[in-house]
Amino acid sequence: MISDELKKKLIEFRKKRDWEKFHKPKDLAVSLVIEASELLENFQWKTDKEVSQMLKGDGYEEISQEIADIAIYLTYLCNDLGIDMEDVVSKKLEKNRKKYPSDKVRGSAKKYTQYKSK
Amino acid sequence: MISDELKKKLIEFRKKRDWEKFHKPKDLAVSLVIEASELLENFQWKTDKEVSQMLKGDGYEEISQEIADIAIYLTYLCNDLGIDMEDVVSKKLEKNRKKYPSDKVRGSAKKYTQYKSK
Amino acid sequence: MISDELKKKLIEFRKKRDWEKFHKPKDLAVSLVIEASELLENFQWKTDKEVSQMLKGDGYEEISQEIADIAIYLTYLCNDLGIDMEDVVSKKLEKNRKKYPSDKVRGSAKKYTQYKSK
Amino acid sequence: MISDELKKKLIEFRKKRDWEKFHKPKDLAVSLVIEASELLENFQWKTDKEVSQMLKGDGYEEISQEIADIAIYLTYLCNDLGIDMEDVVSKKLEKNRKKYPSDKVRGSAKKYTQYKSK
After folding, report:
1. How far does CA B92 lie from the centroid of its chain?
2. Which residue from A90, B26, B60, C91 has the highest number of Cβ atoms inside 10 Å of its Cβ?
3. In angstroms, rounded to a whole number, what is the distance separating the alpha carbons of residues B114 and D42?
């Protein structure tokens, strides 16, 4: 999602402020939930139609910012735990391919709403 | 975080199953919270020491999987809304640089715990 | 929501297992998010119609259980922090009455979707 | 937790504003996560010691307000789905008593951190 160059800048930003000490893995996980919840807040109470209108207005910028926050904390957490995002996403995709063969689940709402990520 | 090639594969995986129709932006935001919360569950009730032990055991693999899920939904949401993650993270970093000048906030717990992402 | 008698039983249940020590306020707050998110999982990807069907089936029991979990953690947190739920809800209702006068906001979607709890 | 009288006032408050139509079960579940996450925000980045200090200051009032919001949405959701909170919490407590016999789990961190609500 983001380049190695930008990742380096994020790590540097944190180091310069001596903020690594606050970024315990548990607190980064807490922060990911908080940011994801702030993203969701932009959709609260809204119908599909109202979501479309919101996305054409100020909502788009606000959503972009929340997405950036999620990506930033995710980058820090992966960095700190030595997790290679390309690698884990790749493996998860392979797993999902086996779990949901396209010829069996294609377009099935039932299969999809019963979908569990684990 | 993930390459354009892998992003293409994720989009293709979804298309082949005809699952785009389930991925309304609001439901993707709901899913991001759910996955972030499943990530957090691995840290629930644990002290720093217990987190370290958990990360040396099975927890590491489980956490990797939850991080993959978050990255996957984030990729879909950005794709669907036309949001360039590199771009929004870059801008957010610039914003944070101005908001938190390193010479003023360096190592300050007070400043950091009062930190709000908005 | 729940009687003083049941509240006592919950406190006793915890005491008998010597579990108070795990219930730090921060971890109870983490647990509330996790349980609320498990509640939300029952609604993930579902349209209004699918939610109705789910509520007529197994979903009803699952949702009842998640609601119980939320109520239990909320009871523990209020007990531990000395917060009187009747009192804080009462005050919040008064606050909301002033903030949203019924003659001004009645049935207004716009006002409602702009509603912020703070 | 809250009296039948206060519950009636909450229902009346909503009715007077013609807001029932916004309170679809899925949106109430979304709102519960958002409020629980706002509660958690007060604990973000904080150590046990910093939490204690926060609770002696402005944090206490903020936390009380977030708890009120959670209790309010929980009350609406139970009302709308015909769920008796006293009843579901009672049954959950019975279930937990069988699942976690006090003589076996007493004070055990291992058992507790492996505790799953389901």
Report:
1. 15
2. B26
3. 9
- Residues B14 and A7: their CA atoms lie apart, in Å, by 27
Of D33, D44, D112, the CB nearest to B33: D33
**Residue located via tokens 């054409």:** A56
For an interface test with B, the pick among C21, C35, C41 (most B C-beta atoms closer than 10 Å) comes out as: C41
Q: A113 to chain D, minimum CA–CA distance in Å? A: 14
What DSSP character marks residue C117?
-
ipTM metric: 0.93
Query: Is D10 within 8 Å of chain C by CB?
Result: yes
Output the six-digit token pair for B40: 């957090």
Q: How far is residue B73's CA from residue B68's CA, in Å, rounded to a whole number?
A: 9
Q: C115 touching A, CB under 8 A?
A: yes
With tokens 């579901």, the residue in question is D88
φ, ψ of residue D31 in degrees (nearest 5)? -65, -35
Q: What is the model's pLDDT at position B10?
A: 98
pLDDT tens profile C32-73:
999 999 999 999 999 999 999 999 999 999 999 999 999 999
All residues at 6 or more sequence positions from D103 whose CB lies less than 8 Å from its CB, including other chains: none
Q: Can you say how many angstroms the Cα of residue B5 is from the centroid of all Cα atoms in its chain?
A: 20
Burial environment of residue D9 by CB neighbours within 10 A (0 to 12, 13 to 18, 19 or more): middle
What's the rounded Cα separation, in Å, for the pair A33 and A30?
5
Q: Which of D22, D41, D43 sits opposite A45 (nearest CB)?
A: D22
Q: How high is the pLDDT of residue B113?
A: 66
List the single residue in D27, D37, D45 with the smallest CB-CB distance to A45. Answer: D27
How many helices and strands, by DSSP H and E, does chain C display? 7, 0
Q: Which two tokens stand for residue C112?
A: 């409602």
Instruction: Give the minimum alpha-carbon distance from A100 to chain B in angstroms, rounded to a whole number.
Output: 8
Written as six digits, the tokens of A10 are: 């994020």
Alpha carbons within 13 A on the beta-carbon side of D69: 25
- C-alpha of A22 from chain center: 21
Q: Which chains touch D (3 or more CB pairs under 8 A)?
A: A, B, C
Q: At what angle do helices D59-81 and C59-81 cross, to 10 degrees?
A: 150
Mean pLDDT of D63-68: 98
The label of the residue with tokens 């408050």 reads D13
Give the separation between CA C9 and CA D90, rounded to whole angstroms: 9
Q: Using one digit for the tens of pLDDT, what is the confidence trace for A94-107?
A: 999 999 998 888 87
The segments of chain A whose pLDDT lies below 70 read 109-111, 113-118
Please tell me the distance from the alpha carbon of residue C112 to that of residue C99, in angstroms, as a whole number: 12
